[in-house]
Amino acid sequence: MRSVVAAYLLVLSWSGLAQGATPALEISNAWVRAVPGSTVAAAYFSVHNPGPRTVAILSVSSPAARGAMIHDSNIVNGRATMRPHGQLSLAPGQTLTLAPGGSHVMLTDLVHPLSAGEHVPLILDLGGGTPLTVTATVRPLDAP
Ligand SMILES: [Cu+2]
Prior knowledge:
There is one protein chain. The protein contains one helix and eleven strands; from the N terminus they run H-E-E-E-E-E-E-E-E-E-E-E. By secondary structure, the protein is mainly β. The protein has a single domain, classed as Immunoglobulin-like. The relative contact order is 0.26. The structure holds copper (II) ion. The site of copper (II) ion (CU) has 5 residues, from strand 9.
């Protein structure tokens, strides 16, 4: 009986901790550029690490796409290229902006074509604990 009570108290304090915990990363301005007729789309956001430790986004997934990966854009010999970035590491206090022409999350094999105004969840795996879910808004092709 005593162990049951102890376990119950442990659960209570654990859920209290979880509720009081702030997300490890702060995400703002999450959006996806809609490309009509395309099965791929790029997602962008700003991410800030307010905590005292380095936090890494290990991977990204989305229910809107069968594939998702972090990409870098570069101009090599006058041609735009993309390559996988691996994880995104943020030092304490650091802010990173994923934006057109730079890093982005490549959504591949979209479940259905995206249209402007739609909301797309992005699920960020921070390595352990609950993944961070971000809602990105779809903007039209000509969004800056
Ligand atoms: Cu890409």
